Amino acid sequence: MSATAPWDATSLATRYDEVRAHTERLAAPLSPEDQTVQSMPDVSPTKWHRAHVTWFFETFVLSPHEPGFAPFQDRYWFLFNSYYESLGPRYSRPDRGLVTRPGAHDVGLYRGNVDDRMRDLVASLDDGTVDKLAPTVELGFHHEQQHQELLLMDIKHVLSRNPLEPVYGGTRPARTEPDDLGWVDVEGGLVEVGHEGEGFAFDNELPRHRQWLEPYRLADRLVTNGEWLRFMADGGYARHELWLSDGWATVQREGWRAPLYWSEHDGVWLEHTLHGTWPVNPGLPVGHVSFYEAEAYATWAGKRLPSEGEWEHAVVEDGQGDAARSGGNLADLEHFHPSAAPAAGGEHRLRQVYGDCWEWTSSAYHPYPGFRAADGAIGEYNGKFMSNQMVLRGGCALTPPAHARLTYRNFFPHRARWALTGVRLADGGTPREVGGPAGRG
Ligand SMILES: [Fe+2]
């Protein structure tokens, strides 16, 4: 990972308290019962998120550095390890919702204990030791923020299974209609992609490297619910010719006929949100669609998805480096739902770059040329997931602002829909080959 320099004991302790307190703020509206449910294997209970991010600090910071270290509880290492094989066996992920003890209150005690010990440890460090520890503590901050986003995505799914349509929070946007979609032309050529500079980045954003891009264009906003309704009305979910083979098989198997969280009642489409269930708002970006659906939509529209290199380069060309993310609809605004695109003609030509919905790209999640995972258990953080997933860019309305970086590479499997994922179209450049060789029988 690439660290932000330099930390001292005070700034590290202050940031630690901010990040940890924010997780508790997000969990505060949820009852112990809300925090216990796992509504599907991809979802983790809220209290598990709260405990797992605590386990991360206990395992990677306190265990190697705290004098006389002893774990808070003997078996928590087994319960709250997520996927680190080099740390030994762990509890089955799809069964996290079966664990009623520790309860939400006891997870709070675990958090408080680790917080006290982390504060004591950081306060005892001299400058040289701070430099040694800071990269791992900072990784812990970013890890916890990733889980803050997951906590919201997961509780959205949990609450979606409740017929009482509970509200978590956020605000309900006024009904809006989509404005015209514009296009931003980009010259391409030999460009550089990937993280540079002093700020924090995950290892998967490195190394910075060159890519060749043919001329291309990007849509100036995300695809809207209104446009998605037209896709549906035109048989989008019933026309095999629009779909990749794996996608079509998934549509059949899962019975998909609309985005996740949409349901039809008396001919009206409703959408479950963190602010309750509303009629689908045509001017808002469509969310909770899989890569397969994004691909099918792009095919239906006669367009394609952008590659991650195209996305990143276009955003740079549009003057929207990391400083521009503060204008985005990210979790700090607490809408917890995508917003309508601002009117065209503003400071930047590409609208909704940061926030609203993570944007599917056509790029497989593979290592950048020259990528090397770190040694030890921490090397399992990103690298081992580099197969069978697609890259998403930009962040969503549930993303902490520090995770909406220009070079941030999010990734999910092709069929995943519970993340807040949407679509930006691309056109031009590397067009799809028409009339190529016959497929394999
Ligand atoms: Fe984690």
Structure characterization notes:
This protein has nine helices and twelve strands. It has helices at residues 9-27, 46-65, 76-80, 104-123, 127-160, 225-233, 245-254, 291-300, 308-317; strands at residues 183-186, 189-193, 209-213, 216-219, 262-265, 268-273, 276-279, 358-364, 390-393, 410-412, 421-422, 426-427. The strands form four sheets. A four-stranded mixed beta sheet has the order 10-9-8-11. A three-stranded antiparallel beta sheet has the order 1-4-12, with helices on one face. It has a three-stranded antiparallel beta sheet with strand order 5-6-7, with no helix packed on it. The longest helix has 34 residues, at 127-160.
Features:
31% helix, alpha+beta, binds fe (ii) ion, 2 domains, disordered C terminus, Four Helix Bundle (Hemerythrin (Met), subunit A), 441 residues, iron, oxidoreductase, DinB-like, globular, four-stranded mixed beta sheet, Ergothioneine biosynthesis protein EgtB, single chain, paralog of FGE (formylglycine-generating enzyme), three-stranded antiparallel beta sheet, SUMF_sf
